[in-house]
């Protein structure tokens, strides 16, 4: 059990590391290509398109191949695409090539997300304890490490072509070593017809759709921070690029701490109360960041913001995975809806920022966060039918 747990933790860490490496050096990508806020937003739509297209079918892929094989392919694609972004932007100064690389990054990252949550949920059921917050906490550990490396790279003026290539090698090493200990999960159905039926059912289930809507608002808040905090500090508060990267690091550090301690909090307070407290903290942080008077209040706001968004994804993934046989289908549905906001919202915020300013554009995210507060009851544990057979404590090899 211990090697399996460590392998899953390594893959979550690698996922956070790859994404944070990209977003923490986004100002350098922008400078290399000479883009405005709106043009950065349009460029990020390339990653959004790849992610959204792949996450919608990722559940079927996981059910067909199993989460282990799917993870190996998707994570490797993401790592390779990260290196290609650096070469395209800094090496060739090519907007088109950078866009293609971001499409590939988005495809790999989205499928990685779904398959890792299916594997993580299988391990959570086997252990019998809420470990999903800790798994997502290790994703956040990866983002902290990536943000720290990004701040250092920005301060040293390290070319992103070298920076991204080095981190890609690190991520690939974590993938190879981590997936060796993975176990099979019960999501691999083997029948394309039954897989299609399960996915179709997922899109018709009210609870699954409400879970997706719940994730939508909070995912937008998390995605907006990931894509725009560094630039918002640089442009809205006149901070230098390295301070912007540090600000993103503060956000992900707060998110990491909340997730690493989230299992015990979740056991004590339950899913619904945890999600409502999370939405309230996120909204407070957003408003303080947008309307705060100084860089110091902005950093305090990032702490509240990070603490707030920390628990939504892991709790929603656990809720979507209550039934192991339908976990891949339901996680795919919830992830598709969430990714629509997580990846589609931030680029649109860039277009809005050209009209009203980046800080004020971020303020509109609070509307969907407030809606998420009222949708929290959808994550309550589903009542089990007394006549059903309980799921096995350990997945079969």
TrEMBL record:
Keywords: Membrane, Transmembrane, Transmembrane helix. The chain crosses the membrane at residues 41-63, 70-89, 95-114, 134-156, 162-182, 209-233, 239-261, 273-292, 298-320, 327-344, 356-376. The keyword Secreted does not apply. One of its GO terms (molecular function) is transmembrane transporter activity. One of its GO terms (cellular component) is membrane. This is Major facilitator superfamily transporter. It is found in: Membrane. Its main location: membrane. InterPro entries: MFS, MFS_trans_sf, MFS_Transporter. The keyword Membrane applies. It is a multi-pass membrane protein. PANTHER family: BYPASS OF STOP CODON PROTEIN 6, INNER MEMBRANE PROTEIN YBJJ.
């Amino acid at each position: 059990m211990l090697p399996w747990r460590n392998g899953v933790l390594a893959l979550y860490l690698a996922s956070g590391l790859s994404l944070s490496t990209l977003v923490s050096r986004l100002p350098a990508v922008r400078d290399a290509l000479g883009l405005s806020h709106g043009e950065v937003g349009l460029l990020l739509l390339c990653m959004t398109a790849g992610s959204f297209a792949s996450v919608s079918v990722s559940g079927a892929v996981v059910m067909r191949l199993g989460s282990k094989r799917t993870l190996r392919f998707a994570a490797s694609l993401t790592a390779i695409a990260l290196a290609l972004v650096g070469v395209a932007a800094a090496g060739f100064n090519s907007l088109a090539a950078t866009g293609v690389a971001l499409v590939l990054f988005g495809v790999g990252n989205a499928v990685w997300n779904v398959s890792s949550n299916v594997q993580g949920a299988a391990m959570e059921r086997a252990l019998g304890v809420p470990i999903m917050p800790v798994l997502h906490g290790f994703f956040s550990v990866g983002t902290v490490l990536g943000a720290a490396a990004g701040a250092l790279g920005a301060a040293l003026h390290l070319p992103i072509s070298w920076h991204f290539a080095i981190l890609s090698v690190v991520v690939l090493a974590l993938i190879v070593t981590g997936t060796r200990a993975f176990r099979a999960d019960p999501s691999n159905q083997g029948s394309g017809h039954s897989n299609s039926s399960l996915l179709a059912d997922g899109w018709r289930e009210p609870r699954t759709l409400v879970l997706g809507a719940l994730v939508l608002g909070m995912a937008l808040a998390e995605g907006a921070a990931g894509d725009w905090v560094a630039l918002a500090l640089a442009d809205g508060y006149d901070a230098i690029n390295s301070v912007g990267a540090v600000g993103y690091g503060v956000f992900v550090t707060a998110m990491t701490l909340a997730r690493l301690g989230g299992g015990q909090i979740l056991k004590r307070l339950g899913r619904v109360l945890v999600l409502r407290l999370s939405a309230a903290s996120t909204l407070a942080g957003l408003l303080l960041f947008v309307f705060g008077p100084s860089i110091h209040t902005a950093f305090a706001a990032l702490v509240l913001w990070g603490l707030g968004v920390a628990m939504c994804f892991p709790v929603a993934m656990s809720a979507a995975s209550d039934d192991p046989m339908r976990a891949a289908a339901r996680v795919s549905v919830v992830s598709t809806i969430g990714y629509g906001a997580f990846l589609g919202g931030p680029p649109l915020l860039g277009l809005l920022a050209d009209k009203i300013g980046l800080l004020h554009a971020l303020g509109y995210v609070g509307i969907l966060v407030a809606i998420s507060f009222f949708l929290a009851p959808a994550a309550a544990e589903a009542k089990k039918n007394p006549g059903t057979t309980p799921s096995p404590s350990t997945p079969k090899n």
